[in-house]
């Protein structure tokens, strides 16, 4: 096995044991990236120089016998909506094309402290708005399992990078499924922690009450490892939880007690692809064989989650994105500027892509005079009903299992003209964001055409430890997570317009 | 005038804190542009607000002092509008759950009490400052974000005021309260205290409100009173002509003394308020309220009454002393040092101290004569006499020295010693036999002349009472 | 409910985004579709339901009133497309 194919924890062990140096890893990884990135296009920006510098620092620490961090020498990719000092943070938007933050996000500080190596910034749908990566202002990332397919969104870049072994792990953001859905489509482990578990400081906001930083990794242990590093209280985020961070790693292989798994009927109904459905059903059988009790559930208001989400997410986004006006940073129109209102309107017309414009318009519509109660307030109430559904469910079960997405990865261009169809691909991931609970997507099978299928495990607030264990139990019984895509350049086909 | 005027006031007071509302930048006034800014108050991508506790407690204190009902639950809302001095293009403010509601301020106008109802008190963030260069042809404006994010308290009245005297009295009372409780320095020249007025006219006896005009950003009470007078005449002449008053926002032009329609705010307001998801709600329990209430000092009205009762000074004097909290504190500090002469201390402060403060345009807090120094002067006064005491006071202001040291150095202590004065008087009578004779023949002015001669010799130090007594005795004895 | 081109123009103005004629038409159609979908929320009676505006149960989060050092003015102004003499520069604002 080549070094870049190892998991993050495996490579870390090798580095610590001095079987390989961090510099060697970085050199080898970048060689591989140079080879495969033209096919996958997972990154918006790579920082080999910075990575080598950090690698040398880690090697030097080890040479001197100094203590090294939990992620010593592990190359990590960051979704490009996470701020990094001195490295462009564009959100895949023209409006921030040249923005270089003078500060690191909280999570970036944390992984640096633990001696991780940042290798680059990965592609996303502009401002994390999308489910396919087709909304990036710069280029489309390809699904490594089938380059005609989308890698999922908005975090298609981080997921594709990890799948193609172009990063050992990645951090992304999950507002309606943007870590879990691309992880499902690319065959990774994608973990969205409880809202507040990880500080949002330095994550460029899309929808503040839904956004949460999450991890994309090659296996469940790595997910626990990365979560261990980035969790915890931060005084610069008012919504950062003060709940203590447990040790996720030490007994990850021990599911305690009799596991009760909730199976909500609303997640297995109309619109669910049959291959996806049966893969998840098979997975449930594996749990049953391992002593788990399956409990049939109903989450009656989940059918309203997408509608609720699109009101709340766009309302918050319309105001979060108001700051991009060309005054203090970012894009400024080259056209003549005789009046400030025209300047704003041109900067934003030129700087934002159509999905972002659509959501800003819709968000302003639902908040505008006369509509607040009918839309925003109504949605906030339904959000509470959905939350109650989950609270009731968690009185009966330890976790809830469902497909991560109703279908496997779809083809590039397939849904781009129908925003509503695109939005509905997040139907199973959205409820966790509305309620604020943690969720993890793990590989649970493949379609006949060889596309990965993801299974979602949802837990109670701050019960990440439990869902990681439940995920690990399945992983220990299966080898879906070890499968690698065959990264061979396909024959050029006609008629595919990118 | 055949119309009734209906007026309401919105007051913005910058709260007195070290750091801004949501970040650690300084709130100091007058620094170089954009030197008190950071990613948070500039609205850079990815940064988040964290509430300044002191700013919130100041607001709570103000709401309590203004007799508001305190909401158990409060939160913050985003108010959206685009303006280059507003970094995020939304202002974090309160709309649905204000800190305080339904309060009041009692004012006195022409001896009559009136209650002005407060609609709400809420906390929000200040905007930055726009500068429009004077250079002709300059087609740009400049932005300084040093003020952006300074905590700002907004106090909104009901449209309760019916004449400018009430407005003036309300403004003064409110300013006084905010100063008294120490939540704002209320420096109008620095924009710490600003007013917005709304004014509408209606036929006397009518219950229907007329179309309301709002006038923004008035930086002095004088400007408020001027703009109200202007608007009353503008609106009444429109109504007289049978024309409509437009519902609009106007700006006061202090140079030309006119109000003008604001061009930039022509579009209808649609602030799209919704709860600020980057902050969490604040629950206020009774214990916290009690804690804050305990920090509220005695208010001007109560202090006024207490001064009259406790120190037996006149109602008028107590009014002057309590108009400025610092002056009242100065007085009480004096009284604390010398309980026996509140009336005299009050006279000194009202006549002499205030005169000097006005002349020197300084605050009593910065006044060179401390309460201790004033008390020393008042204590030493019987030994130097009133007129020398005034001179010594002047000398204290000029040099910063204490009364005893000036008196000692210049040897200004009165001569009270009867035998010493007797000797001097003997000499004066000997030197001025004519005057002594005139007095004996009933010419009373001769006495004044002889006192003057004695004062000349003693350089004004002779105790005038004792001297007069001795002289009169001696002269009457001599004439027998 | 339909969103008209005229309403799109109004929201675009509120949003400070200039739209082309084509964009207006497309957005009017797409937003109408989304709005139709969202109408399903009206199936639910929410009169007695409290709104949930926060995804956290945290309350009363404060910082102490303390100064914190920031970046230099130069570092901050360097981010801006247009600045002069320590100020950010914008097209003339008329009040
Ligand atoms: Mg206000
Ligand atoms: Zn700041």
General description of the model:
The complex is a heterotrimer of chains A (about 500), B (about 475) and C (about 100). Chain A has about 500 residues and is an alpha/beta fold. Chain A is about 35% helix and about 10% strand. Chain B is built from 15 helices and 17 strands. In chain C, helix 1 crosses helix 2. Chain C starts with a helix and ends with a strand. The chains are: A alpha/beta (about 500), B alpha+beta (about 475), C alpha+beta (about 100). Chains A and C meet through helix 9, helix 10, helix 11, helix 12 and helix 13 of A and helix 1, helix 2 and strand 3 of C.
Provide key terms for this protein.
heterotrimer; A: 498 residues; alpha/beta; Amidase signature (AS) enzymes; eleven-stranded mixed sheet; 15 helices; globular; B: 480 residues; alpha+beta; Arc Repressor Mutant, subunit A; 3 domains; nine-stranded mixed sheet; three-stranded antiparallel sheet; 17 strands; 41% helix; elongated; binds magnesium ion; binds zinc ion
Mean pLDDT of chain A: 95
SSE succession of chain C: HHEHEE
Greatest interface (CB-CB under 8 A), with counts per chain: A-C, 70 and 50 residues
User: Order of strands in the sheet with the most strands of chain A?
Assistant: 1-3-2-4-6-5-10-11-9-7-8
- Unreliable stretches of chain A (pLDDT < 50, length at least 5) are none
Ligand inventory: magnesium ion, zinc ion
Approximate shape of chain A: globular
Helical content of chain C stands at: 25-40%
- What is the oligomeric state here? heterotrimer
| Beta strand % of chain A | 5-15%
N→C terminal distance of chain A:
34 Å
> Tell me, what's the shape of chain C?
flat
The termini of chain C sit apart by 37 Å
